[in-house]
Input
Amino acid sequence: MAPQPAAELGYKPLDGGWGWMVVFGAHISIGFAYSTSKALSIFYKAIQEDLGASYSETAWISSIMLAAMYAGGPVSSILVNRFGSRPIVILGGLMCGLSMATASFGNSIIYIYFFIGVIGGFGLSLNLNASLTIISKYFLIKRPLANGLAMAGSPVFLCFLAPLNQYLLDKFGWRGSLLILGGLILNCCVAGALMRPVIPPGQPSSCAPQKMVEEQPRQRNTKLKQSCMKNAKFLDLSFFKDRGFVIYLIGNVMFIFGAYAPIVFLSAYAIDQGVEEYSAAYLLTIMGFVDMFVRPGTGLLASSKWIRPRIQYFFSFAMVFNGTCHLLCPLMKSYPLLVVYAVFFGISFGMVFALIFECLMDLMGNQRFPSAVGLVTIIECFPMLLGPPTAGLLVDIFADYKYLFFMCGSVIVAGGLFLFVMNIYNYHMLEKEKTAKERQHNQKTIENQGQVSVSEAEMKHTSEAAVEQTEPEVKDKSGAQTDPRPEDAETPSI
Output
């Protein structure tokens, strides 16, 4: 589909300028939001030994964190539209940083679930939603590229967080590592400070002089009503009437279910195959290194005139590619082959996440995107919550990692094929509906023109009849004034 017109926003986005600083801030914010839960997998074995937890129990840490990040979408949308992106990203950074520091003092797995999973995850949801929303306000034509650069924050941060966490684990243990990681996440507050609000042309800035005092209460009431109306739309279930949205949501849920378990268990799988711990951690670094270049490259490719109208099909291909990589992973037994898997995993994963929110913007438009992304994320929290623990349960039952890769790969491939087939159907139906509307519009136009012609003919006939009735009356009146009287004509002579 073509990009949404700027008229929907009420102003023309900058597509550059300070927007690139906003993209840099979003790069940091989204980087921590997506990479933190993955990089925590480095600590799982130490947490298992210290707290006596199983594989599936430790897998719940990342699952709860990601589920809270996605479930907080509607609340984050409301806060972003009420207060703007800048304060919300700063608040999210504070929440997540403090939750990591507090979790370092925990002595039970439930304690870890609450502070890292629930509080930390909700803080990350504030970062994610606010960053995506403000990018859609700064960019339109270059939006796929901007989204790709911002989403590249995840692999960039994963690239250095994975080996850094392994180093911190060896030096300070998992408790000291969480404390240091919490301090690093506070950099999201700096990223939030870069997210300057967009001021549409013709509207006064915050430093403009205030209007007359008697107008201020009326303006506050109007803003309050507008805010309430906006907030009421964030959980608007009317999105489910949109066929394209439902198709996107089903395919996306299938992808999310299988997307994160391979990342969570990749290091453990490599160690199980006899790979050294540091080398196993570097697999995530390799994946992240590849991913960081693929995301902006995919965004640039998606901005081209050949791909932009077919971006939904491109998204489907990326999903099938990603699932196929997981299906082939159990064949990779040696470290060089695992490196090859990590490279292709990074390519496919980067392609999907460079397009995942751009496709939603393409379907919903800039104005409806904050509401739609809030609804999508709260639904996605369920597969996000169940995916890694289900994979961990398979490992506990079969004592083999290959079954989790088979499960994740098959689900993702099925989701990609579903999106491809259903998007063909959706575009066919949209074209059919458009043709029917045009035909109906043309028919109404012809009927209106016929009615106008009949009305004009009736008016012409009525006017002619009125003229014919008026002319005899005029003649009678003029004849009575000019004819001589009969008495004068018949006067006898004497």
Summary: Residues 402-482 form the longest helix (81 residues).
